[in-house]
Records
---
Amino acid sequence: MSTRTDIEDFIAAYAHGIDDGALDDWPGYFTEDGIYQIITRETFEAGLPLGIMLCEGRGMMADRIKAMQTANIYEAHTYCHLLGRSQIDAGSGGVFQARTNFNVVRTMQDGGSQMFAIGKYLDVIEMQDDRPLFKERRVVLESRRVDILLVYPL
Amino acid sequence: MLSTVDELNEPLQWPEDGITRIPYRLYSDPEIYALEQQRIFRGPVWNFLCLEIDIPNAGDFKTSTVGEVPVIVTRDENGDVHAMVNRCVHKGALVCLKEKGNAKLLTCIYHSWSFDLEGRLKGVAFRNGLKGKGGLPKDFDASQHRLEPLRVEVFCGLVFGTFSDATPTVESYLGKPMSKFLRRNLGRTLKPLGMHSQIIHNNWKLYGENVRDSYHATLLHTFYTTFKINRLDMDGGIVLAEDKWHSISYAKRATLEEAPEYKAEKIHSVQYDANLAGPKLLDSWPEFEDGITHSIQAIFPNLAIQFTLNSLCVRFFVPRGVEKTELFWFYVGYEDDDEEKTAMRVMQGNLTGASGLVSLEDGCINEFVQRGTRGSAEEMGLAEMGGRDVESSDHSRATETAIRGFWTGYRKIMDIP
């Protein structure tokens, strides 16, 4: 198996894990000090720092999951991620950069499925013991608008 | 076009019990929504248009909306700010399509009519026709045609506009306590940090109540309570503007004296007992000497300024239909913030917005009211917490006085008997 295949499988497993509701596993896709951010394209392209969600390190990611499981109130829903083919570039020192388009369909309690979030993942991926991990995953949303709320990570 | 309550097909009267009762019909009646566009948004109020930092340079323009009316805000060569309806004088097409830009002239793409940054008609394509034929009549007077102007005032970096000659200055409109607090929060040069918006599926007034609802904040929003960011057992209060339209809810985090009622009532929001695995989330510094660490200032009709710890955000909620509202989050810092301060404001951005750890519930809770009140237009909601009066509350935020203030202002401007 090639590194490219490993990274593709890793990116797919991340999305499928969220779709299956395995949110406790989510921080484990990142390095200990990994960064996760959801930001609008408009803010990102303006070079401004404040997006919609920001976690620095697995601890903050675990806090997010704990909050959404026990504290936050919202109508339960599910995601289905549709991913485009990843463009993967090898950097130096075992670090890879990947860009992947996504389309997330959200299904609400009334049974309606709707396009919820469209954009691109901009990833910095590090190989640790031959296993890929996100050192950085920036989720750039095409739209500035979020329908209702955004609680589960994308 | 509807202009008074008397013209409604269904007569409207405020319930006998007064301002402590809110008819559910106000959230769902298309005729009332249409009337609001005239009486409120085109009426004697100051509408938030944009931040001054959105249009820093000569020629900058930004599109915005007043109620449902699309508007353009510009800065001219002299640095003056103007606002006008984004509707060409010719066929009514949008003149500016882009959300932001820089231009010397604003040109409608339909027939290339162009306007200066004040909205005056400067050019008409083929005005004299071609080869001596066609064109506008000789007596066409371009000076009689301009983009419909709004009166503009910039206050504390906020650009406000009004359609009405009856609106007093922004400072008089806000009143003394409101102007003073706005100066505290926004009276320095701002810098943008990021922006997004949220579509919430409810009438705009439900969000207007929501930002004034200090009672719900620590019951629904568990994160506030658990991490002692905002609780009703902190020293805090509600300040109402003289005319009740606007209000401030504030709390001082350092004054928390835990009240037994939170535990005794088994409130959802204290069930979540947590320590943060990533405590950096709540890193903050005392920004002001007055000890206030959390405030929401609501400005009628559809603006709120939030200052939670060091997270400063201008929230602007725009009606997009009877049951649909777009809520904009404009996060800002101060121009002289160092990197460390900026980083803390950015991290605290996690608290609010569409994914806000303390606020994301507001994205759906107002929709739950919208859905819950369907088919119950004749019924009404209750707002008696803290009494039935509409006065500032110095020592308690277990009150709905600011909500009663909102409806007091609403009833007056809508002239509902």
Note: The first helix of chain B runs from residue 30 to 41.
---
Amino acid sequence: MAILRLLAIRLFTTLVTLSGVAVIVFFVIRVVPGNPIAMMLPPGATDEDIARLSALYGLDQPLVTQFGIWVAGVVQGDFGTSITTRQPVLDLVLGRLPATLELSIMALVMAVILGGAAALTGTRFRGGRTEGAIDVANGMALSVPDFLWGLVLILLFGVLLPLFHISGRVTPSLELPFTTDFYLFESLIRLRFDLWADIVSHMFMPALALAIPLAAIIGQLLKQSLKETMNLDYVTLARTKGYGETRVILREALRNAALPTLTLVGVQFTFLIGGTVIIERLFSYEGLGNMAIDAVINRDLPLIQGIVLLFALIFTVVNLIVDLLYAVLNPRLRHA
Amino acid sequence: MTFLSIRNLSVRLKKGPPLLRRVSLDVAAGEVRGLVGESGAGKSMIGKAVLGILPPSVEVTGGEILLDGTDLLRLPPAERRRRIGATCALIPQDPLTALNPSHRIGPQITDRLVDILGWTRADATARARDLLAEVQIPDPDRVLRAYPHELSGGMRQRILIASAFAAEPKLIVADEPTTALDVTVQKQILKLIAGMQARHGTALLFVTHDLGVVSKVCQRLSVLYSGMVVEDSSVTDFFAAPRHAYSAALLAATPKYTDPAAGLLPVPDAVIDAVRAEVAAHDRGAA
Amino acid sequence: MLDGRSMIRRRAGLRLWLSAGWLALLCLAALLAPWVAPKDPLAQDLFLGRLPPFWVAGAEPGYWLGTDSLGRDVLSRIIHGARVALMVALIAGTITCLIGATLGLLAGFLRGWVDMAISRLIDIWMAFPPVLFSILLIAVLGPGLISIIIAIVVIDWTRFARVVRAEAMAQGAMDYVASARVAGRGRIGTMIREILPNVLPTIVVLLTLEMGIAVIVEAILSFVNLSISTDDPTWGGMIAEGRTSIHQAWWVLVFPLITLFLTVLSFSQLGEGLKDRFDPVLR
């Protein structure tokens, strides 16, 4: 019951936030200096041409009218037409979304594995040199942002020791039998492991670059929390029962220590998704972020609007999921 | 027959002052021994050393802990853990923090039976149900499925007691098991522990600062001061005539149930000075 | 007692000096760029394109770290690039710090409706993901150095405001503040003379960290070509160029990358090191 109520409240606030973002984005973008229409036309276009095209995109109307038209469209699933490609924004954005989702989730999985391993190893060998080394590595990983890790990875595993692909999402010459844009997922479902390996090889480095800072945060927070938990009475009691250190950490301490880490990881995961913008650019990965940068460079207002809204939607959904997960994992909330 | 025998056990803070000074004591099978002393006298440290849960900041510098004739300190860690888990148990001080908040009660009682002693889950659960009934918990099946936060402090302490007796251990260390409880609940719990001990014939190492408690449940006691055993006698002898001046002062400082109006006598400075000199002489002798 | 903790303490001191040393060197290079750079950073010479660094066969004397595809000297471009990087760090960092710290100080010390207003503003800002914010801002302001600085200030002032507010609040509750007020000092006077000096260490630490962030933001935006639009050398721009010719001329990417890496690391280590130094004040 408590979870349902939480869900209802969170859905409502999500809606409010999204509407707020939509309003802000719409009006902020309209104060852009310079006329995007002029940039679309070949040099030597007349003022009449510009006026005609402006009318076509509704840019000659007053701001409030434009907003009304836009909202009416959004409600019906029409997010406008991209100025540069002249395709519906919704199609463009949804076409790129799966790539970015797959990349973010792979990065999250890597971060949880790396950070979790660092925290568990550090706790198991706490007070010794191993823990010191893990702390130093965590500190390094936190000081340097994903963009630089991406470049370092390109040099290490793209040039020095060419193990992985450094650009794109799949090798272009490959024949793709896919019906959706979730390549990683669909290749598995179709048991096309050759394609799957190729896709993973393309995703590995961008995902790792995104994962490194988050892994460091998880490693630090979880280790801190684990070490505190290991001093609690129920852990001591479990030790007298004959369990070894590793077993005590995994069975008694991990679950309780992971709860406080979880909420922070949620916030950090939204930062990771934000990081895809530049990382996709760096690895020429055809996702939303790469498209966002092109849209900014080309001043493609409808497209920017659509992408920003979609990102905002992803962020709020992630926060929602984290809150629900927290409620499910915490028995105190579950039964309250 | 002696089940636990501690010989000249010395423990200190790593590179710091000693916490236990050549402590020796025996616990016979089925016997209840009280460990008394002021806070910081090292009484809990003895229980922790026996159960292998000394904090990482302290180290054992000498002596033996013989459990059924085998020196625990000479065993490899995994073997030591297994042996302690199979024959000993702990009743902790604070029932509110001694149960894992994210596991149900059932597995917390049965885990040792299943994982260490190799029982089937069904047998272990049946055993847990019987034990909960024995510690007078109504509706054991509901409690086995509950999470700790759904139960009261007194209930949780009963559960911890039941859990300690689950594997029919030879020795239980009770580390101030009533200190964190309400005065009204204290008496019930004390009675419960004493009754369970008598029925199961388990040896008990009872750590407490309350001589009144000792007089009710223990047969023998050790008085500690600054990590040193200053007196080791039977409870009857002790309450009739304590042999050491410090124990006598400690006894005088304890409120008497027979005469609450008598007032409390603080331990006199002269006695403290004398026992300190004794500790110092002991350290010189050991060095 | 020589345990891990004291080892780390000593390493922390070393870390501080190494970071400060690298940043000082960089500042000198930026200030004296026209005199210390061995070549003109803009001079192209297609006959000297993609020369390797000095220790590799085929290197040309004078071009220590090699040349890019247009024959421009990599070392000279890195030195001149330091000017843009440090300028953004200094200007964006300082403005962000001034605005954020002032608002935080006012909110934390004056409390009341001022605090209410500023805290609400911070909350709203925090709800807006920084990446969206920067995409929007750059889209609105158009590419360029000024846009980058404005974007950093607009997005990051909350970093200072939040921490300084909490710190000023804690200091405001202390006795010495009350006694200064009793001694007849005005509210703003007390804030500047009594609170500010005690919050200053925190501000310095945050400023150092912010400068590192500014450097990386500038590099990223010049990497995607949204920073300064001329041929002026920037590290991000060099990295973008090096990324395309990575298999033919690795040095075009590697040297600016190392410089950027060390600079970002130094700012952050300097900040962390200072935080440790100021520890009693910060906690």
Note: Chain B touches chain A at residues 51-53, 56, 78, 81-86, 88-90, 92-94, 97-102, 111-112, 115-116, 147, 149-150, 160 (CB under 8 Å).
